[in-house]
Amino acid sequence: MLSASAIALLASGIVVVLMTPGPTNTLLAAAGLRQGVRRSLPLIAAELGGYFVSISVWGRFLAQAAHALPWLPSLLRVAAGLYIAYLAVDMWRAAVALPDSTQRANGMRTLFVATLLNPKGLLFAGTIFPAIAFAHLPAYVFSMLMFACLLVPIALAWIAFGAALGSGKLGWLNPVKMQRGASIVLGVFSLSLAWAALH
């Protein structure tokens, strides 16, 4: 079973990466903006399904590849740290734009495919989830249950964020400051990944 420190690292990694703006979160917020919270709720199942398939496939592939290439997990952690650092810099420089409320709402298939192809799936499988999760079924089930329990409220928050933008309740919100705050969180997380990979 996972140690307390591994569980804490898993939980914090899941939360930080899921909260990061990206294609899936933008679609969730846009759905909330266009059709409200209640009608957007089924999209959470599409996101969960997309991540479940992506993480499982990448995790099994990387577990097999790590036997032949023992240096691969450390390399992936460094690469993930660099990728997250890039996201942090990119987020600092540009605000996330949501499609406007006149555009057609995206369906479950669109959200599932966007999540399936989201690079975060590889990031979760290769860096955030512990290697034991793809070698032992109990650790896999525990990790996936934790992932699902954390994904649902975060996805709901993105939908609610979009709905609040659509209703005008967040007119006071400064997207640039919000974006830069998120980029600082990402930057700190990327440093922690690089530190873990090198020690």
UniProtKB/TrEMBL annotation:
Keyword annotations: Cell membrane, Membrane, Transmembrane, Transmembrane helix
Domain of life, source organism: Bacteria
Topology term for the membrane: Multi-pass membrane protein
Record bears the keyword Transmembrane: yes
Membrane-spanning residues: 6-28, 40-59, 71-89, 110-133, 139-161, 181-198
Main location group: membrane
Presence of keyword Membrane: yes
Cellular location(s): Cell membrane
Annotated InterPro entries: LeuE-type (IPR001123)
Record PANTHER family: ARGININE EXPORTER PROTEIN ARGO (PTHR30086), ARGININE EXPORTER PROTEIN ARGO-RELATED (PTHR30086:SF20)
Full protein name: Threonine/homoserine/homoserine lactone efflux protein
